[in-house]
Amino acid sequence: MKNNDSPFHIVLVEPEIPPNTGNIARLCGATGTILHLVGKLGFSIDDKHLKRAGLDYWEAVDVQRWESLQELQGQFPEGRFWYTSKKAVKSHVQADFQAGDFLVFGKETLGLSEELLQSNAEQSIRIPIHNTVVRSLNLSTSAGIVLYEALRQTGQLD
Question: Buried (b) or exposed (e) across 9-23, using 16+ Cβ within 10 A?
Answer without folding.
Answer: bbbbbbbbbbbbbbb
